[in-house]
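Reopening this ticket.

The earlier resolution said the output was attached, but the attachment link was broken on my side. Pasting everything inline this time so it's all in one place.
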Amino acid sequence: MTAPLDRVEHKLHVPQQATHWDAYRPRYEVLLNARLTAADVPSWLARWSALDAELGEVGAKLSTHADLHTDDAAVQERHQAFVAGVMPPAARMGQALTEKLLAVPGYTPAADFALNYRRFRDAAALFREANVDLGVTHEQQKNRYSVITGNQKVTLDGQSLTIPQARQRLDSPDRAAREDAWTALTVSHMEVAPELDAVMLDLIRTRRQLARNADEPTYREFRWKQLDRVDYTPADCRAFHGAVQDEVVPLAGEIVRGIARQLGLESVRPWDYNRSNLLDPSGRASLRPFQTGEQLQTLAQTAFAGLDADLAARFGQMRDGGLLDLESRPGKMTHAYCQYFPVNNEPFVLMNVVGSAEDLRVLFHEVGHAFHGFYSGDAQPLLWNRWSPIEFVEIPSMAMEFLTLDHLGHVFNDEELARYRRNLLQGVVTFLPWAAQMDAFQHWLYAEAPEEVGIAELDAKWLELDRTFHNFVDWDGLDEGVRAKGWQYYHIFQVPFYYIEYAMCYLAAVGVWQGARDDAAGALERYKAALRLGNAAGVPELYRAAGVAFRFDREYIRGRMDFLKQQLA
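Inline output:
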């Protein structure tokens, strides 16, 4: 075990006594039984926030540790015991404390708590006792996805590879090598597809029951309230799907087919298309700026130092504190994310790097989330006021992908940097159809699909959408049963309806970068100021603070695509 991994394991250590409800129950009961007047509320909220932070940090560490060890039954059992034994009484206590707060006569929340007071009121109205234990079932079902995919292996060229390691082969300039990698990945995915089908059917039933218990007509309505989506409607999302189909899909097809023509390809086959890293039109190998996770950390440290001294110091804190786990390993969950440990205001980044330039971009993305945690945590003492509404939460990450562009001279030469920049801009264009497809699929699944929907209907709907949003990929002669399983994706299982936010924030991040081209220092200060507002401000206000507008309508999308076309030209 390497020294950095030792630090990670130490950071994720949770004492056994902290995994039981009895470690928290007496202190929650003190809060519940306290005499509470309007004047008492601020100090009472501070104590509640600190206790929620302590309990939430234990849950976050157990969850992250489970993601690092999907093949360790004892680690998995410890996490699931916490989910089953602590989450239900904590949820019931949270509802009781919320009702106590809402009943305080004469209390008017301070300006920095007004939004969350309203959110507390709305969440209390959505609470149902029947959903407490059902929520545990929901978490256990979601965890099955992580265990199945975390233990997936790919056999390629006589080697056993993790999913990220095999995906890296899709960037090869050798078309035969790409096809071999795609075929091997397909074999691996189809081996676990029946298991994931079963998990999905269980999740659909559970999610629909959660909605029925809360007296909501569909899971979409339930989830809309759960996610506090108050600034836009499902109809706005539908309009977004149509705008992407008309304004973005043709541009994405033009870019992808143009690259194929330059490479002498008659069509774009599935192994010729990686939306995150399009093929080089000159047939050059993908950029590989580092080999190890430690090297990636060093490259990023220098980039952050060039951008801003305080950002560099925050990243250094993560490096020294065991708050980064970057390498891909067997048994490790294959996704990338930023976790948060609130007691000491510490973000944690999990990745699966293989040495690609795409890894560099993803690190900037995830550390952008970490900066959000740091700055909102510094500025907002109450736990509920940290981070932000989900419609803003991807701007700190996606904007960081762009803000670091001018600070990579130590990573790439001029020609390589131009390639990296082009890939980043193209990636915005090719991401939007995927985001629209993911969102459209979930609107259908949770608001329109028949009550007894089966896997065949899910597969058919995904095929229909993929033919709409990715009509530039040629599947002729291939088994479209493989294509139909594209919905078996992390967010569909783990965070339903959380995806259109990526599109909103990518459009905004391009605007942040556009502003930085005219005033780099001003754009960075606006970025930090917006992060400090945390969850105490609404979505439109946060966007304005960052120097952009909260929009994702057709006209706005068309303008962003025109700007990107100019930059790519």
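Reporter confirms the inline version is readable. Residues 175-213 form the longest helix (39 residues). Residues 3-141 form one domain.
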